[in-house]
């Protein structure tokens, strides 16, 4: 494995005692099977885990999701209330409702979700609108260099170069597993970038701002690589 080591953890506080308790339950999961593991995964979601010790990544959950939020609880938003702004250095700023996004051409593929801390979930079915299509409609100006993805959690940001954002595997995700993106997974709409580590996939997406630079976002400010491409092992 050649994952870069994160400088920090990926969520809101979870104490050492809780971590050790989960490790005990994780051992039960190994013996009794996947329903216990799914339950554990849900429990981790509900406590918005933080992993200052690195111990939680040792819990033997297998290829299951961990749900991350650097802000703790996020106020859920319905699809009816949802909107996505395309702003910044563009000739055609726009605001898309969820229905607007559903009306655009959809791209679907199965691809692995991989967190930089080492866990991954294989063959996830994704469906959504290519960021490239939204950028083309917005018409970035000549001085545009990057995009900044913002979240309605009010804190999380990530960016890519304009060129990276135009890749075929970068989506505004409207469905995972042929179902609406759940709140825990960053619904109504999140980013997925197939070639990049999970931290590039902003959850609770609210805005794509086209910018004059490629400035570091939340995790890049805390030590994750600016270009988040997944390294071969
Ligand atoms: N808004 C927001 N988006 C986020 C994060 C976050 O904390 N807040 N964590 C990132 C990281 S590090 C990972 S690995 C994935 C986790 O996605 P999941 O919670 O659907 O498993 O979300 C990414 N997007
Ligand atoms: Mo991550």
Automatic annotation (TrEMBL):
It holds the Pfam family Oxidored_molyb. Residues 77-219 form the Oxidoreductase molybdopterin-binding domain. This is Oxidoreductase molybdopterin-binding domain-containing protein. It comes from Aeromicrobium alkaliterrae.
């Amino acid at each position: 494995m050649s994952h870069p080591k994160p400088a920090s953890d990926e969520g809101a506080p979870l104490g050492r005692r809780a971590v050790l308790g989960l490790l005990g339950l994780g051992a039960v999961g190994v013996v009794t099977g996947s329903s216990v593991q799914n339950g554990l995964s849900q429990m981790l979601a509900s406590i918005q885990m933080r992993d200052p010790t690195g111990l939680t990544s040792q819990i033997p959950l297998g290829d299951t999701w961990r749900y991350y939020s650097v802000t703790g609880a996020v106020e859920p938003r319905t699809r009816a209330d949802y909107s996505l702004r395309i702003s910044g250095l563009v000739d055609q700023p726009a605001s898309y409702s969820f229905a607007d996004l559903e009306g655009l051409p959809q791209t679907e593929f199965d691809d692995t979700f991989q967190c930089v801390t080492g866990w991954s979930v294989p063959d996830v079915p994704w469906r959504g609108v290519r960021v490239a299509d939204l950028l083309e409609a917005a018409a970035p100006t000549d001085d545009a260099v990057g995009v900044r993805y913002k979240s309605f959690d009010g804190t999380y940001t990530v960016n890519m170069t304009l060129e990276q954002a135009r890749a075929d595997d970068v989506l505004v995700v409207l469905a995972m597993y042929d179902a609406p993106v759940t709140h825990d997974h960053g619904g109504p709409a999140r980013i997925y970038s197939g070639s990049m580590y999970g931290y590039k996939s902003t959850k609770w997406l609210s805005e794509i701002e086209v910018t004059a630079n490629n400035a570091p976002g939340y995790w890049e400010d805390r030590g994750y690589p600016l270009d988040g491409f997944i390294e071969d092992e």
